[in-house]
What does this fold into?
Amino acid sequence: MSSLLEITWTDPVTSRKGYVVIDTLVRGLASGGLRLRDGCTLDEVRGLAQGMTRKESLVYDPADRYLPLGGGKGGIDIDPGDPEAPEVLRRFLAAVRPIVKEQWNTGEDFGLRQETLDKVAADLGLASTVEAVFAILPDADAARQRLAEAFAVNVDGLCLADLVGGYGVAQACLVTAERMGLDHERVTAVVQGFGSIGGAVARYLAAAGVRVIAVADRDGLIRNDAGLDVELLLGARDGLGVIDRAVLRPGDRTGPREAWLDVPCDLLVPAAMSYVITEADTSRITARVVVEGANMPTLPEAEAALVTRGIPVVPDFLANVMTNAWWWWIVFGDIEPTAASSYSKIDSTMRRLVEAVSVEADRTGRTLRACALQLARRNAEAVTERAGVTG
Ligand SMILES: NC(=O)c1ccc[n+]([C@@H]2O[C@H](COP(=O)([O-])OP(=O)(O)OC[C@H]3O[C@@H](n4cnc5c(N)ncnc54)[C@H](O)[C@@H]3O)[C@@H](O)[C@H]2O)c1
It folds into this structure.
């Protein structure tokens, strides 16, 4: 299916490319983050924008005030660690400012912190990068206030907004493990990526008793089969989600970052870039289940090969849906701007979704992705009926 709108921007200074793709609009609005990645392509952003359309409709609950939006996404082809990155980001956002103001509600994604994005937005005269949605709210001031309060919440040293997505992924892991008859206390996990999503997945899996035995960041793999001290590692991250190796304990071993696929474990959680599990990689995977914390980490042929081997893949637009949903639950007033209210809504929604999709997969013999897609489509029809004409 083609997108509604695709923008390719060329930075006048560095010639780097940036992209915005609006896949769908509901009530004139789309939602989806902005990523910074060296090598990022229009095709990648298109796929991510389609994923956002699915995420928006998948969580639809007629009882919520939040009525899903359409899906969009942005990407800039630059390494987040490149010294030019902040200025390229600034010029990109200045160029696409009208679309941010009118249609595309955006936020952090791979390679970009919300804090950084908010600073750039403020310089451009925007209250935040979530701006367009306020036009449809009856009390926009109250919604802005709730969002500000939610963003000020800190949970054991980390901002709640940076935790909710990974908390949701951890819940997807835990509910799936339970359904497979696995006892959390005996389960092991390996996580690729230790930023917003990966860091929070590791934190909340460890809190549930899961042994997190390896994590990978830009600089390599850290492994300890007895279990890593996740909180210690979280406290030693830099702005690129890289762990300071000086804090490692005697049993912690380091290795090449590619080795994350070779570590025997129960839960394998890609939570960094896209396209990291290819068909050729699948023979290295011994996990019982792959839970996609990242967007589009598993190539379709790889997923087919895993499923044939009896390793289910919990798809990205289900497992990592919670950052997006959380913003809207706060903005629309479905939850209080507190950690307790946020986590309680995530728990109940993730359990409902994973169970519905898993029951359907068991009943039909289809994949979790196919069943989640079917649910997202069904919900999209219900949203269209309620919202009226889209676009
Ligand atoms: N942040 C969100 O709210 C959000 C929401 C939904 C989905 N996602 C998806 O989750 C994934 C991660 O996003 P994030 O926001 O946590 O990113 P992030 O920038 O916060 O963290 C990325 C992590 O990946 C690590 N990394 C970078 N290159 C690596 C490599 N080659 N090998 C191993 N690790 C590497 C970094 O060191 C860092 O720890 C992305 O696919 C993103 O689209 C993010």
User: Anything to note?
Assistant: The pocket of nicotinamide-adenine-dinucleotide is lined by residues 35, 108-111, 165, 192-198, 216-218, 240-242, 257, 271-272, 274, 293-295, 320, 323 (CB under 6 Å). The chain has a mean pLDDT of 96. The chain has two domains: 5-136, 162-366.
